[in-house]
Design a protein that fits this description.
alpha+beta; 24% strand; Phosphorylase Kinase, domain 1; 7-stranded antiparallel beta sheet; 5-stranded antiparallel beta sheet; single chain; binds adenosine-5'-diphosphate; binds magnesium ion; 319 residues
């Protein structure tokens, strides 16, 4: 997986507060729910305790690029992440149970239901005992998998056919797990290392679920003109049952390409963050925090791309 996009360095509060001036009228850089206890603030989501073993996950409009949370939020991003995840949770229920309890704010407990700023960007979920592994499925050779293959002819430590080009489709999708580090960069591990860490039974279950989810989502997305090149899932246990958690099949956890622009041998533009990456690269930023603020046209273009991704997958505009 592209570690630059999906590592798990937590965003410190100071990093968020500093950006006050850059907050647009509709963008949420940091949620506030008076009377609720914060469970965890991740790079993108603020997670609150909701009682009865449940959590409320609030997707902010924070964007992280090259593992750093940017000071400028992207309007509508959190709403897209939440509602696209909800769409996919519903579609994949028959493959694996998931953590969703309620998606409508009116059905949440207090104080959440009386906090209108959460509308469309929050979900009530079962708190699960997380398996600290990023379950990555890849159907195409891209990102860190391409880097490894180009160097050593392997992906996740396993020998691959010779002569593959960048972005080429694999015969069968592969499972390339990574550790979910509390801070810093996640690390790719081999399937053998995974089995040693969690036991071979759970390792096999994680792989089977990940590949089944990927196959199903890839086929669906292709029917809507998008290639799901790779994606990352998180799973946990709830009352002993393996459960799909976190976000699923969003532009932040997945690499979607526009099928008409796909050419093996090149890197298709990333569906969502291309403007941001192009801008950051051109700015000469050294990829250490703090990141530069984004110009209005980059913010607007990125917001449009998230909305377009939602609309193309779901088949109607975000409400
Ligand atoms: N049902 C759940 N139970 C427990 N933890 C969860 C659940 N769903 C998601 N999480 C965790 O909540 C956090 C979501 O916030 P996020 O911004 O994605 O964090 P990160 O910076 O780690 O990616 C992640 O640490 C994720 O593993
Ligand atoms: Mg996350």
């Amino acid at each position: 997986m592209n570690r630059g996009e999906r590592g798990s360095g937590a965003a410190g509060p100071s990093e968020l507060d500093r950006s006050g001036a850059a907050i647009g009228p509709q963008a949420t850089i940091s949620s506030k729910v008076s009377g609720a206890k914060l469970f965890r603030r991740g790079k993108v989501r603020d997670v609150y305790e909701a009682g009865h073993g449940n959590l409320v996950m609030v997707a902010s409009d924070r964007l992280s690029a090259f593992d750093v949370v940017l000071p400028t939020p992207i309007p509508q991003k959190g709403r897209v992440l939440t509602q696209l995840s909800n769409f996919w949770f519903e579609r994949t229920r028959s493959i694996v149970p998931n953590h969703v309890v309620e998606t409508r704010l009116d059905d949440f407990p207090e104080p959440f239901r009386s906090t209108p700023s959460l509308e469309g960007r929050a979900v009530l979920v079962k708190q699960c005992d997380r398996v600290d592994i990023e379950c990555v499925a890849r159907g195409y050779v891209s990102g860190s998998a391409w880097a490894e293959y180009a160097k050593s002819g392997t992906i996740a430590g396993e020998r691959m056919p010779r002569g593959m080009r960048e972005s080429e489709r694999l015969g069968d999708p592969i499972f390339t797990p990574a550790t979910k580090a509390m801070t810093g960069h996640d690390e790719n591990i081999s399937r053998a290392q995974l089995a040693a860490m969690v036991g071979s039974d759970l390792a096999k279950k994680l792989e089977d679920v990940t590949i089944a989810l990927y196959r199903s989502a890839h086929a669906y997305a292709l029917g809507r003109g998008l290639i799901l090149a790779d994606t990352k899932f998180e799973l946990g246990f709830h009352s002993g049952v393996l459960t799909l958690i976190d976000e699923v099949l969003t532009p932040d956890s997945s690499r979607y390409w526009d099928a008409v622009r796909y050419r093996p041998g090149s890197t298709p533009p990333s569906f969502d963050k291309q403007y941001v990456r192009d801008f950051l690269t051109a700015s000469g930023w050294n990829r250490e925090p703090p990141a530069p603020t984004l110009p209005a046209e980059v913010v607007e273009g990125t917001s449009q791309r998230y909305l377009e991704c939602y609309e193309r997958i779901v088949g109607r505009p975000l409400a």
